[in-house]
């Protein structure tokens, strides 16, 4: 896995994503680690342009890349089943992003938890209404997807800051 090459992509080509690739993304999300093996995460797939575009106003800023995204996966979690729902959903979301990169797709995280829509409503509430998601489900994020229409350089060794790493005690380098 090329971890240095995975970057957030915010511009996508107008090429639909094959169902097989979406299924591969969902497979890694469904087997991603969860606290106490709760497996409380679920996913809502937006696999056509109309559905993805219906999400554009879900955040008042930082979601413009949904304009060109070809698909999107909403990451939700049953908060009654998992006390670690934020962590579990975050791991699943990142698994989707890593697999997307491996499959030649670009992705970008669109955070919804504790955010506001363009209408000033909680983004989670807007998501639930659009998708008929029951209240017991916590809404974390959307992962926007598409074939990249921008190039970003890989991270390099110069981007690695080992000054942020301590051994045993804070500050022990």
Give the number of DSSP strands: 4
Question: Any idea what the CATH superfamily is called?
Answer: NADH Oxidase
Please, what is the average pLDDT? Answer: 97
Find the structural class using helix and strand composition.
Answer: alpha+beta
Task: Tell me the span between the first and last alpha carbons.
Answer: 28 Å
Element-level helix/strand string: HEHEHEHE
Percent of residues in helices = 25-40%
Strand portion, in percent? 15-25%
CATH topology: NADH Oxidase
Number of domains: 1
Q: What CATH architecture would you give?
A: 3-Layer(aba) Sandwich
Note down, in words, how this protein is organized.
This protein has 173 residues and is α+β, with helices and mostly antiparallel strands. The protein is 25% helix and 17% strand. The chain has one domain: NADH Oxidase. It is built from four helices and four strands. It has a four-stranded antiparallel β-sheet, with helices on both faces. The radius of gyration is 17 Å and the shape is globular. The two termini are 28 Å apart.
TL;DR?
The protein is α+β, with helices and mostly antiparallel strands. The chain has four helices and four strands. The longest helix has 18 residues, at 85-102.
Key features of this structure:
25% helix; NADH Oxidase; 173 residues; alpha+beta
Q: What's the helix and strand layout?
A:
Elements: H1 19-30, E1 41-46, H2 49-53, E2 71-78, H3 85-102, E3 106-111, H4 123-131, E4 137-146
């Amino acid at each position: 896995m090329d971890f240095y090459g995975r970057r957030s992509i915010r511009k996508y080509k107008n090429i639909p994503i094959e169902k097989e690739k979406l299924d591969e993304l969902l497979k890694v999300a469904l087997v991603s680690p969860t606290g106490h093996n709760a497996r409380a995460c679920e996913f809502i797939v937006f696999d056509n342009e109309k559905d993805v575009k219906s999400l554009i106003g879900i955040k008042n800023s930082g979601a413009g890349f949904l304009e060109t995204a070809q698909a999107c996966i909403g990451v939700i979690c049953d908060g009654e089943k998992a006390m670690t729902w934020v962590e579990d959903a975050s791991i699943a979301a990142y698994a989707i992003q890593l697999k997307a990169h491996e499959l030649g797709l670009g992705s970008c995280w669109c955070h919804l938890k504790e955010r506001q829509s363009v209408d000033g409503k909680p983004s989670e509430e807007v998501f639930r209404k659009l998708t008929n998601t029951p209240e017991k489900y916590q809404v974390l994020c959307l992962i926007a997807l598409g074939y990249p229409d921008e190039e970003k350089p890989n991270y390099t060794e110069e981007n690695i800051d080992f000054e942020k790493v301590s051994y045993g005690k804070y500050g022990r380098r």
